[in-house]
Specification:
Strand order of the largest sheet: 1-2-3-4-5-6-8-7
Number of strands: 8
CATH topology: Aminopeptidase
CATH architecture: 3-Layer(aba) Sandwich
Structural class: alpha+beta
Shape: globular
Strand content: 35-45%
Radius of gyration: 15 Å
CATH class: Alpha Beta
Largest sheet: 8 strands, mixed
Number of domains: 1
CATH superfamily: Gcn5-related N-acetyltransferase (GNAT)
């Protein structure tokens, strides 16, 4: 579906098993996974399983996850993609993570902008949603910077790490 997307400073490409070690370093950081629906990883095998899951979901056209690579250093700095698709309603839910060393440098908005463009022009998506925990101020800044519209808060919407939590819902339409 997506092989590679280029931006000014990044390229986004399909995840590979060769990314395991780099992604493990990111997903094992409790600060990175704090607002994700996973607990920080403790073994690289968990990363391999996650990559396999993303491959399966992509084959089934249910989700897409890409590795984010900084062009200058050729370093893997995170991942992004669509956590889900609803083809009939032409909607997708966006998700992303970055290694802490790359926070606040504009990489998240840059990668998400490229994904939005791809979704609207290639996937025929009309609406992209972002579901963000109210305490995740960094992600709220990202979606606000990209002009997503705040639609409201879903109370105790999802469960992760053995408790229910609220999510703010934002949208971006074609």
């Amino acid at each position: 579906m997506i092989e590679q997307i280029h931006t000014k400073r990044l390229y986004l490409r399909k995840m590979k098993m060769a990314d395991t070690h780099s992604l493990f370093k990111i997903w094992s950081d409790p600060e990175v996974t704090k607002f994700m629906n996973i607990t920080n990883f403790t073994h690289e095998e968990q990363t391999k399983e996650m990559i396999e899951l993303f491959d399966q979901l992509a084959e089934e056209h249910k989700a897409i996850r890409l590795t984010i690579i900084e062009k200058e250093s050729n370093e893997i700095i995170g991942s992004c993609g669509f956590n889900s698709f609803d083809v009939e309603r032409a909607t997708a839910e966006i998700g992303y993570d970055l290694a802490k060393a790359y926070w606040g440098k504009g990489y998240a908005p840059e990668s998400i902008s490229a994904l939005i463009e791809f979704a609207f022009t290639t996937l025929n998506i009309n609406r992209i949603e972002a579901k963000v925990e109210p305490g995740n101020s960094n992600s709220i800044k990202v979606v606000e910077k990209l002009n997503f519209t705040f639609e409201g808060t879903f109370q105790e919407y999802d469960e992760s790490k053995e408790s229910f939590y609220d999510v703010n819902v934002y949208s971006f339409c074609k």
